[in-house]
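Example record used in the benchmark description.
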Amino acid sequence: MIGTMNFKHLYYFWQVAKAGGVVRASKQLHLTPQTISGQIGLLEDALAAPLFAKRGRNLELTEAGRLAFGYAEDIFSLGAELQEAIRNYPEGGRPVEFRVGVADAVPKTIAYRLIEPATLLPTPVRIVCREWKLDSLIAELAVHHLDLVIADKPIPHSVSVQAFNHRLGESGLTFFASPALFRSFKGKFPSCLDGAPMLIPGADAAVSARLEQWCEANKLRPRVVGEFDDSALLNAFGQRGAGVFIGPTVLESEIRMQYGVKTLGRTDQFVEEFFAISVERRVTHPCVVAIAEAARDRLFASTGDT
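Model output (structure tokens):
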């Protein structure tokens, strides 16, 4: 029968595994090697499994030892977190973990502006952010590995997952160019875009097809010189003058300042939309509530979304 595990014995095992040997750990713990070896022996008796195996002069973790070490890491990390939380109580406390996925088609600046309000809550928050393809993120959401997915379109019909779209808002689009490229343009917007070098979002971005339709409707044939899944990389190329690029008008001044570019023109004839996707029909997670409220009341307030 497996005995009761003593957490002091587990702590000694954890220190030996981290130090790489009993002698090193004994110096750190100010105990004799015999004492530590005896304590680990008691832990192995309690768990009914050997945790170390000798390889010449060295000790190596067994399969059971590696499993025990993983649990010990979690246990003692939580213990340190508990001490910190109690030390700071009532001002602090254990951070709320907020796991959010960002579809790679969402502009990085928009993603930051949307997520930022979750970090400003009175309760400490630890953000875990993942960027991936939308389908993959929704699959992670379905098994509760994520609390929220931020996307530029609703859940695709091809995805059979029980989740809900919460529309955050929309923005018209602004066309940007580096100062040198800007000076090369003649004529008024948007006709000046005909034949101009253009950097476009990848096919996964919902705004990509809308941009193409808008160009056709306005009888414009820009030269596509680059297509990017990553919006930050697209903007970096635009900053260097490789081509014209678009960004949400709600961030126009921020993009101009960040990248040192100029505005060629704006349009509301096609827009970029943003959604929060969750397994909750009614949003209750405090971080998601903060994101939705900030999007409605501040970021997209001028667009009239409610």
